[in-house]
């Protein structure tokens, strides 16, 4: 049991690139996010990288908690 103060807060990010989707276990994966969408992701999801002085997080679509309108 963890107190509410010990839980990590999700973070908001902006989608800057989207892959083409593909096949997973023989099922087609259709991308539901697009460039420019604001999304909520878990604090520790994805892989953080730094490219040309900018920080990015690469996440799988299943790690996106919500699209913010």
In short:
With 69 residues, this protein is mostly beta strands.
Let me know the average pLDDT. 86
| Strand line-up across the major sheet | 1-4-7
Backbone CA Rg:
14 Å
Strand content: 35-45%
**Which consecutive residue ranges, at least 5 long each, have pLDDT under 50?**
none
Q: Which shape, going by the Cα principal axes?
A: globular
Question: How many β-strand runs?
Answer: 7
Which H/E pattern describes the elements? Answer: EEEEEEE
Amino- and carboxy-terminal Cα gap: 33 Å
**Helix count?**
0
**Biggest sheet statistics:** 3 strands, antiparallel
| Helix proportion | under 10%
Question: What attributes does this structure have?
Answer:
mainly beta, two-stranded antiparallel sheet, globular, 69 residues
Account of the 3D structure:
With 69 residues, the protein is mostly beta strands. The protein contains no helices and seven strands. The chain has strands at residues 11-14, 22-24, 27-29, 38-41, 47-51, 54-58, 64-68. The strands form three sheets. Strands 1-4-7 form a three-stranded antiparallel beta sheet, with no helix packed on it. The mean pLDDT is 86.
């Amino acid at each position: 049991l963890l107190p509410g103060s010990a839980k990590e807060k999700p973070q908001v990010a902006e989608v800057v690139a989207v892959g083409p989707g593909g096949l997973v276990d023989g099922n087609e994966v259709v991308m539901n996010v697009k460039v420019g969408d604001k999304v909520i992701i878990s604090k520790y999801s994805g892989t953080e990288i730094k490219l040309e002085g900018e920080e990015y997080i690469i996440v799988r679509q299943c790690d996106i908690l919500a699209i913010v309108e």
